[in-house]
Design goal:
By secondary structure, this protein is mainly α. The protein has 6 helices and no strands. It starts with a helix and ends with a helix.
């Protein structure tokens, strides 16, 4: 009986450790990738056609995504997974291309790296808030509302003319 309790405890700790790793790794990956994205987008030469630049970007992204199968293998086959897709994959593709074009044009228009990235992310978050609450039933607290107010104040401060 004692070994069973120890076994259950080890399994729970193993699950908690994996869950916490995924929790922190996923957000760290998103933050690092977003920072890298903006740095690289700002560093893209202004004399290159940005459609050609994106073509190369997506070719490399395709290869990197294929390499992802090493870490996240398909168990039921590609065809079975493709049948599970819905409109969201097409919408995501359109959104990604829009983000790419938008930021490349934004930086070519002379926006500062830090200001443009923060402005877009804050405004996008504020636009998504009603969708999150009404469509996905996300809950917001008074602390979240205070954070939203701080975001609005931050937007004013970011765009304040000296």
């Amino acid at each position: 009986m004692q070994w069973q309790a120890a076994y259950v405890t080890i399994r729970l700790l193993n699950y908690a450790t994996k869950h916490m790793f995924l929790f922190y790794f996923s957000i760290s990956l998103a933050i690092a990738s977003s920072a890298l994205y903006h740095f690289v987008a700002r560093s893209t030469p202004s004399n290159v056609n940005f459609t050609v630049s994106l073509l190369v970007t997506y070719a490399v992204a395709f290869v990197v995504t294929l390499a992802g199968f090493l870490f996240f293998p398909v168990t039921g086959g590609i065809k079975a997974e493709l049948t599970k897709l819905n409109w969201a994959s097409i919408g995501l593709a359109i959104a990604i291309v829009g983000i790419e074009y938008g930021f490349l044009l934004t930086y070519r228009a002379g926006w500062n790296l830090g200001i443009a990235a923060v402005l877009v992310n804050v405004v996008a978050s504020l636009v998504l808030l009603p969708l999150a609450v009404f469509l996905f039933r996300d809950k917001i607290s008074w602390v979240n509302v205070a954070g939203i107010v701080v975001c609005f104040i931050g937007l004013v401060m970011l765009n304040w003319k000296r």
